[in-house]
Design brief:
This protein has 350 residues and is an alpha/beta fold. The chain folds into 2 domains: 180 residues, Glycogen Phosphorylase B (Rossmann fold, 3-Layer(aba) Sandwich); 162 residues, Rossmann fold (3-Layer(aba) Sandwich). Helix content is 39%, strand content 15%. The chain has 12 helices and 13 strands. It has a 7-stranded parallel sheet with strand order 3-2-1-4-5-6-7, sandwiched between helices. α9 links the parallel β12 and β13. α8 packs across α11. The longest helix is centred in the N-terminal third of the chain and has 18 residues. It is globular and about 65 Å long. The N and C termini lie close together (9 Å). InterPro entries: Glyco_trans_1, Glyco_trans_4-like_N. One of its GO terms (molecular function) is transferase activity. Pfam families: Glyco_transf_4 (PF13439), Glycos_transf_1 (PF00534).
Length: 350
């Protein structure tokens, strides 16, 4: 079987969690010897992926690439000899193709008004249409499946749950040392409002008033959080911007805890990566986080900075952190198992 992948999002400069997950899954599918993979996207992907690549009309320009995805991609697909098209970021064609289409939809946060204005509008216009046009949808948690069924009003048997995996590098091997404080709390992710950065900072101020500890924020550097939140900079808060996986691994390994008080997650990669490194997690009790992290995290109410601070303090004061238990929870999520389950869904669609 020949699997085509819409790789339009793979060439962005600072890929977020959903795109990173899609890239890792594509690489796992390429390693799978029973099937051939064809990518549709930027010619720059040839240096990273050992797969056939269609780049006709692609120009690494954000606006043009969206036009390319909606107009030229279906034409390229029709001229190729693939058996099925997989669209990993909710970016399936808006009409039925001659071949089956399987789309991954991580969540419906845009439909619920939880993303930026332009992105929200685009997703509200395209995702419902694409969902109806494709043959099967996969998503990354039972929570997201229920949200998709409710918001998009789809038949239950069209949506399949396949949990994300995490990069093997978080379980084993070396990390890349970076300059970090001696004792710090960590946040990894975008500065999207649904990540609850405001609640995190308020909780940190409460913890900082009682003990010496700093806060490190890792993620895309396209926003000034203090300006956006209309607050004064807080001493002890460090922004590291976007780092590569081995640098992030070093930050996980040396943190006292990852604090992730998000309001809404379809899966939540950073907490699982933190567990893989043996670092405890303080997580919001919303979205898919309780489902994915189970009993391996300390859960807090994201609406209450005091409760977030209490959870952080409990972890800092704990003398019984069982790193092996944390890692066992993370080991449930591997890209090998994800690829096998996706191929099963794809074969059924074909």
């Amino acid at each position: 079987m020949k699997i085509g992948i819409n790789a339009r999002t793979f060439s962005v400069d600072e890929p977020g969690g959903a795109v990173q997950a899609s890239i890792n899954l594509a690489k796992e599918l390429i390693r799978h010897q029973d099937h051939e993979v064809v990518l549709f996207g930027s010619s720059s992907l040839a240096a990273e992926f050992d797969a056939e690549l269609y780049s006709g009309g692609y120009h690494d320009n954000q606006i043009w690439d969206l036009v390319w995805e909606r107009t030229l991609l279906p034409l390229l697909v029709s001229k190729s000899d693939i058996d099925v098209l997989y669209c990993p970021n909710g970016n399936a064609p808006l009409h039925e193709l001659e071949i089956p289409v399987v789309m991954c939809l991580h969540d419906v946060n845009a439909q619920l008004g939880l993303s930026s204005n332009i992105h929200q509008l685009y997703r509200k216009l395209t995702v419902p249409v694409a969902a109806v046009a494709c043959d099967a949808i996969v998503t990354v948690s039972r929570f997201s499946k229920n949200e998709i069924l409710t918001v998009l009003d789809l038949p239950e048997d069209q949506v399949h749950v396949i949990y994300n995996g995490i990069d093997n590098r978080y379980f084993r091997g070396n990390s890349t040392k970076i300059n970090l404080p001696d004792k710090y709390l960590l946040f990894v992710g975008s500065l999207n409002p649904r990540k609850n950065i405001s609640g995190l900072l308020q909780a940190y101020e409460k913890v900082q008033s009682e003990r010496e500890i700093e806060l490190v924020l890792i993620g895309p550097s396209n926003k000034d959080i203090f300006q956006d939140l209309e607050i004064q900079p807080i001493p002890g808060v460090h922004r590291c911007g976007y780092l590569d996986a081995l640098e992030v691994k070093y930050a996980y390994e040396n943190a006292e805890a990852l604090v992730f008080p998000s309001y809404y997650e379809g899966f939540g990669l950073p907490p699982v990566e933190s567990l893989a490194c043996g670092t405890p997690v303080v997580a919001g009790n919303r979205g898919a986080l309780p489902e994915v992290l189970d009993e391996a995290a300390t859960f807090v109410d994201p609406d209450s900075p005091s409760n977030i601070a209490k959870g952080i303090t409990e972890v800092l004061d704990s003398s019984t952190i069982n790193k092996s238990r944390l890692k066992r929870q993370a080991q449930k999520y591997t890209w090998e198992s994800v690829a096998k389950r996706l191929i099963s869904v794809i074969e059924n669609a074909v």
